[in-house]
Amino acid sequence: MKRRKLTQRLPGSRPASGRGAGREEARGAERGGTRRGGLGQRNRWAMGAGGCCYQFRVLLLGDAGVGKTALLRRYVEGSPGAAEPEAKSEPTVGVEFYSRALQLPAGPRVKLQLWDTAGQERFRCITRSFYRNVVGVLLVYDVTNRKSFEHIQDWHQEVLSTQGPKVIFLLVGHKSDLQSTRCVSNQEAEALAASLGMAFVETSARINCNVDLAFDTLTDAILQALQQGDIKLEEDCGGVRLIQRAQVPRSPSRKQQYPGPCQC
């Protein structure tokens, strides 16, 4: 399964486009699988007349090695409840793109565009270019790496200086299964999250602990801010989009209908 690396893409540009990409996305949805790079997604839906959904663009930020890629892979590709052996992944180069579609309990359907960023300083000029076009940010640190926790405020301020106050943040303490080498307490992280005005979740991609909860918490917070008017739909903003689709006739002989190339 190939990874899609975006090292020089302009803000707001679409990673996959064209009829070929749309057909491939449709085939991936019908198979029920998930492919990286935005060409296939889990939890696809068929929408009726007047149906609509939101697209939220979300960024993961944090020092190199905190496990941002592992979190995303577990959320998008992993099997629920299954533990996985510890494995070292290659460092992200520039920015990589994932996506997942889901149905929220409150009713709206949401497509998440998930951007995995490199934590190394030499890629910072690339990752900064994506700040202006996101509505949500997961600030990730490693509970066994004190410096990654201390750098959270720097990541937070860097986004605010570029994006402004409209973005929704979530603090994520990763690798919570490594209790014997933990050096950041839960209480410390809760205090930091409260001081920065954001929620906090501890996760472990290896044992699949609270991974879905982290992304669901951020998604719910974005939707709530949107409904309350704290975040507004704007034509020139790629962080939030409202997507509408025409009615798709349902056939009793097929389990799923797909309306054609996705315009997300």
From TrEMBL:
Q: Keywords in UniProt for this one?
A: GTP-binding, Hydrolase, Lipoprotein, Magnesium, Membrane, Metal-binding, Nucleotide-binding, Prenylation
Q: Where is this region: Disordered?
A: 1-41
- InterPro entries given in the database record: P-loop_NTPase (IPR027417), Rab_GTPases_membrane_traffic (IPR050209), Small_GTP-bd (IPR005225), Small_GTPase (IPR001806)
Q: Which domain of life is it from?
A: Eukaryota
Where can this protein be found? Membrane
| Start-end of Basic and acidic residues biased regions | 21-33
Q: What's its EC? A: 3.6.5.2
Q: What is the recorded membrane topology of this protein?
A: Lipid-anchor
Keyword DNA-binding carried by entry: no
Query: What NCBIfam families does UniProt report for this protein, alphabetically?
Result: small_GTP (TIGR00231)
Q: Which family does it belong to?
A: Belongs to the small GTPase superfamily. Rab family.
Its function, per the record, reads:
The small GTPases Rab are key regulators of intracellular membrane trafficking, from the formation of transport vesicles to their fusion with membranes. Rabs cycle between an inactive GDP-bound form and an active GTP-bound form that is able to recruit to membranes different sets of downstream effectors directly responsible for vesicle formation, movement, tethering and fusion. The physiological function of RAB42 remains undefined.
Which named protein is this? Ras-related protein Rab-42
